[in-house]
Design goal:
- The chain is α/β, with parallel strands linked by helices.
- It is built from 21 helices and ten strands.
- β9 and β10 form a beta hairpin.
- α5 packs antiparallel against α12, α9 runs antiparallel to α11 and α11 runs antiparallel to α12.
- About 30% of the residues are buried.
């Protein structure tokens, strides 16, 4: 009983959660279930009246009145039921839109540390898996109304058929006397209880088989989604699939997964069918018993012929309602574990502390890292260890190092996407955690390696706003090197990027996309500009022009470059070399080249040899 009470409590929790996204949607399901459960009893009760009327030889007008009332009431309920169903579908669709919107808003507001956490990614994948399996919100939409229908059917069936058990006669003998005796009703009711218990036991087995099926299907769907949605269907993988002949190996893997999935399904379904068969046998035995019980009592004259229709119909509806209710309840019970994914997602904590201090406007401020150490969630290795560094306001800096040295981590901490585990970061001599987060964030204009453009107008992408200053957009696009392509666009800044929402959208190359991202940083006009691999997709000439342009644009601004192309370091006032999360060298380009045993010199020489060799091979081939 405690487990049942706990399951009901969890189901009610899920229903309340669903209704919070569109108030009234659950109540419409309840009303629809009540109408579904009550509709058959109009026919049962009216049929009983008509049959009794015929046996009593009532006037034809009376019988026709009964029939018209039955038809009219049935049509009225059907019309009302159709209206409720339509409203339920509309409310459910609104609820789905609200749910999707709130998930998107939640993911845009959670701490970045949670967003980048693999556990959060798995939560989002789990939501997608549940949609494909029909679990979660879909399961509630498909199972709750039938549960109410089954429950209301059982209650109404009990009200209609209870007199079949109260009508007794102790003066009769033989088989008829046994059936009409008061204690026989107790036996029949006991058989009904036994049937209910057998169905509960059977549905418990179905529940475990269903949970096993859903669990296996979830694992299968996870793998299948990766191969199809994330790989096979993606145009980016299309070239590799064709050029390397991957079609056969992918096909074998997919068919292998499908065969294993079918094997698992068959096992789970066979178990479920076995349990359901026991429930059907119990219900079938009860049906035969009830028919005999009611017919013999009617034969003994304890109630009229028409009452047979009412009592048998009522008891049969009870058995049907019981089956529907238990099946729906089992689905809702199994679904509670999948609804936990939604609660985990919406309960992702916002732990990033924000102070109330205001960032001084138009005041150059130094940035200082003081003994900063940091590890990414779930990683025991330090990305930065006791890192200390000062960036003077208005200077241009390059941060260089081998892959994985901690360069991008410095920027993430500086922008407060993460907070340090140890040490602190100062802006203008004050711990950055003391500033209002939104004001602090406005200090930086950043272009990360994995920047994102959106299928909106070019001007909206640059301004990051719905409305924008067209002249300003054109100016920064010119500064970022996008001027020539902009001039060729018939709609100019109003041109939509990509074709996600319109067929008139344009595709841009990686280099052009990087120029647009750079323009977005320039449009923000922040006092600190941070560029993480800003020229990775640009050709050498475009790269040089960009650095010259940024050198002029960045006057009186603090500019931080992260780049593997060390030629860009010549444009900087100072170079910071990081290795394994620690600052190991610092100085300008000429000073660092003097240090022949230093990391910077070795990196510079490696690149210089590469470019020299490339130039030699080019000349030789000519």
């Amino acid at each position: 009983m405690k487990k049942t009470a706990s399951s009901i409590k969890l189901i009610l929790r899920d229903l309340q959660f669903v209704d919070s996204f569109q108030p009234g949607v659950v109540w419409l399901q309840i009303l629809g279930g009540l109408l579904e459960g009550g509709t058959p009893f109009v026919g049962i009760y009216s049929s009983s009246l008509i049959v009794n009327g015929i046996t009593q030889k009532l006037a034809l007008q009376t019988l026709l009145l009964y029939a018209c009332l039955a038809v009219g009431l049935t049509l009225l309920i059907s019309r009302f039921k159709a209206t409720v169903t339509k409203l339920q579908q509309m409310y459910w669709q609104k609820m789905r839109y609200t749910l999707d919107l709130k998930i998107a808003l939640k993911m845009s507001q959670v701490d970045y540390s949670n967003l980048e956490n693999p556990d959060t990614y798995q939560l989002l994948r789990s939501l997608q898996e549940m949609e494909n399996l029909g679990s979660g919100f879909k399961r509630i939409g498909n199972a709750f109304r039938p549960a109410i229908q089954g429950l209301s059917t059982m209650i109404l069936a009990g009200a209609v058929a209870y007199q079949a058990f109260t009508a007794t006669d102790t003066s009769l003998s033989g088989l008829v006397g046994i059936v009409c005796a008061p204690w026989s009703a107790i036996i029949v009711i006991g058989c009904m209880v036994g049937s209910v218990l057998a169905n509960i036991w059977a549905n418990k087995g179905v529940f475990y088989a269903t949970r096993m099926y859903l669990g296996k299907s979830r694992a299968f769907t996870n793998r299948l989604l990766y191969y199809t949605a994330d790989y096979v269907h993606g145009y980016a993988a299309g070239k590799d699939i064709r050029l390397y002949g991957q079609k056969k190996i992918i096909g074998r893997e997919l068919f292998s997964m499908v065969r294993q999935k079918n094997k698992d399904n068959d096992y789970c379904e066979n178990q479920s069918i076995g349990y359901q068969g026991i429930g059907i046998l119990a219900s079938g035995f009860l049906t035969v018993l009830v028919y005999l019980y009611v017919v013999i009592k009617s034969f003994a004259g304890l109630f009229r012929v028409g009452d047979i229709v009412r009592y048998v119909g009522g008891i049969m509806q009870f058995a049907s309602g019981l089956t529907v209710f238990l099946d729906s309840y089992t689905q809702l019970k199994a679904n509670t574990q999948f609804m936990d994914v939604y609660y985990q997602l919406f309960n992702l904590p916002a732990t990033l502390y924000t102070g109330g201090a205001l960032v001084p406007a138009h005041e150059p401020m130094d940035i200082e890292f003081q003994n900063v150490s940091f590890r990414y969630p779930g990683n025991d290795t330090y990305a930065l260890k006791q890192f200390s560094c000062t960036l003077k306001a208005g200077k241009h800096y390059a941060i260089v190092g081998l892959n994985g040295s901690g360069k991008t981590t410095v920027i993430k901490l500086l922008c407060r996407l993460y907070d340090p585990e140890e040490g602190r970061i100062l802006l203008g001599g004050k711990d950055i955690r003391e500033y209002d987060y939104d004001q602090y964030r406005a200090v930086f204009a950043v272009v990360f390696q994995d920047f994102q453009l959106f299928p909106f107008a070019l001007g909206q992408n640059v301004s990051a706003r719905e409305t924008y200053d067209g002249q300003r957009v054109r100016r920064v696009l010119k500064q970022s090197g996008f001027e020539a392509r902009l001039a060729a666009l018939p709609e100019g800044c109003a041109t939509v990027l990509y074709q996600d929402f319109t067929t008139n959208g344009i595709e841009v190359s990686n280099g052009e996309a990087q120029k647009i991202a750079l323009a977005r940083a320039l449009y923000k006009d922040a006092p600190v500009i941070v560029l993480d691999e800003p020229t990775a997709a640009l050709d050498p000439m475009a790269e040089r022009e960009l650095y010259l342009s940024l050198h002029d644009i960045g006057v009186n601004k603090t500019v931080v470059y992260i780049s593997h192309r060390l030629a860009s370091c010549k444009f900087c006032d100072e170079i910071i070399v990081i290795h394994q999360g620690a600052l190991i060298q610092r100085g300008n380009h000429e000073d660092l080249l003097i240090q022949r045993n230093g990391q910077y010199y070795m990196m510079w020489e490696a690149q210089a040899r590469h470019y020299a060799q490339t130039n030699f091979e080019k000349q030789y081939s000519e």
